[in-house]
Amino acid sequence: MRTLLPIIMATVLTSPLHAFETKPVTEGNLPTFYEAIKEKLTFPLAYERSQLSTPDEWRDTVLQTVRSLVLPYEATAAFDAEVIEEADHGDYMARRIAFNITDESRVSALLLVPKGEGPFPAALMLHDHGSRFDIGKEKWIAPWYDDARRASSQEWADKYFSGRFPGDELARRGYVVLATDAFGWGDREGNGYDSQQALAANFINIGGSLAGLMALEDMRAAEFLDSLPEVDPARTAAIGFSMGAFRAWQVAALSPHVDAAVADGWMATHEGLMVPGNNQLKGQSAWYMTHPGLARLLDYPDFASLAAPKPMLLIGGGEDPLFPPTSVEAAFEKMAGVWQAFGAPEALETRIWQAEGHIFTAEMQDAAFDWLDTVLMN
Fold first, then answer.
1. 259 φ/ψ angles, rounded to the nearest 5 degrees
2. pLDDT tens, position by position, 236-254
3. Do 91 and 82 meet the contact criterion of CB atoms below 8 Å apart?
4. CB 3.0 to 4.6 Å from 236: which of 122, 156, 218, 365, for a disulfide?
5. Phi and psi angles of residue 230, each rounded to the nearest 5 degrees, phi first
6. CB contact burial 130-141 (16+ within 10 A = b; e otherwise)
């Protein structure tokens, strides 16, 4: 037996049938076998694979599964809102407020309320990631109460929004507007970009996920907005850019308190995003948009389609380096099939905007808000 062992080992190590990988990770931190794994993602809960009898039955059944997988728990704390300060901005009143967004967290927020006779339609403004954490809600609404933060916010508006504050634009149009800080931004700023990996891992270690907390908080913010006496609860929209766009279609899918959505700059297929070099594969920021286990069940457009047949406007950039237009168009086509099945193809509006970069320009805002007016103002 002692003389046989070296002979057997030599056979195993030199046989091509027993070759093994010595570097199983690509330079972009993908497993070398990622293509084989991608082929196993069949998205069994997608509408086109459903064996359920009606689109409504598909949505209600799958939504129950998704909520149980995505959300850490059902928050029940009273909102217990208070006004911190108020300013008169001519056409509307601007308020800094605080309320309980979950059972554990109380947050500050910005609320804009038009003057005149309500109730008004409402907009929940969901901010982007952008690797800029000192401002969150102030990316959407001009912070009148802090000069230093106003300077940071104006810099952001100049870079992405043609110098505008889109939340203030909507308030002038007659919308009640609410913006909060996501966990890690603004008044809730964390430990910076490089800490996101550890934060995400620790959320999983305590039985939840960073993405799940964001989803829960956005649902609660929508419910809070709907509860305000100035708001018509049948006319509430979620609006987002970049990561905020992900949040907008996500909360439209998950929450009965969202009646419409505008999402600019976050929709594509897993197939199109799970490619070397894509931003979604770099960790850190991607954890806010990664629900553990969900990719085994649904593609991104399948998840968003749980919002059907609510009115939804999705905008993709023709020259957006983060979201390949072919993948965006494939996602749009898949979603169109679901709205068609619900008998409401006109409720889904998809546009590829020929703008350079990952942005939400004044022209794009005007088009989006005009669309929203037709949906919620009439």
1. -105, -15
2. 999 999 999 999 999 999 9
3. no
4. 122
5. -80, -10
6. bebbebbbbbbb
Helix, strand, or coil here: 190? coil
- Which pair of structure tokens corresponds to residue 96? 């800094």
Weakly modelled stretches of the chain, pLDDT under 70: 1-21
Name, in order, each residue with C-beta under 8 angstroms of 91's C-beta and a sequence gap of 6 or more: 114, 115, 171, 172
What's the CA gap between 51 and 248, in Å, rounded? 28
Where would I find the beta strands (DSSP E) of 194-347?
231-241, 260-264, 312-319
Q: Give the model's pLDDT for residue 6.
A: 47
Nearest in space to 265 (alpha carbons), one of 290, 240, 242: 242
Query: Quick one: pLDDT at residue 27?
Result: 87
Position 18 scores a pLDDT of 58
Tokens found for residue 7: 């002979």
| Cα 338 to Cα 302: distance, rounded to the nearest angstrom | 9
Residue type, 273: L
The pLDDT value recorded for residue 282 is: 84
Contacts with 123 (C-beta within 8 Å, 6 or more apart), sequence order = 167, 170, 175, 176, 177, 178, 236, 237, 238, 239, 372
Tokens of 360: 């939400």
- Mention every residue, 6+ apart, whose C-beta is less than 8 A from residue 5: none
| CATH homologous superfamily for the domain 47-376 | Alpha/Beta hydrolase fold, catalytic domain (3.40.50.1820)
> So what's the pLDDT on residue 139?
98
Hey, which bits of 127-186 come out as E strands? 176-180
For residue 22, what pLDDT is reported?
79
100 backbone dihedrals φ, ψ, rounded to 5° = -85, 110
Structure token pair of residue 344 = 């409401």
In whole angstroms, what is the distance from residue 222 CA to residue 87 CA? 23
What is the reported pLDDT for 7? 42
Angle at 83 between CA 77 and CA 84, to 5 degrees: 115
C-alpha 270, offset from chain centre? 15
**Cα distance from N-terminal residue to C-terminal residue, the chain:** 87
The confidence score (pLDDT) of residue 277 equals: 83
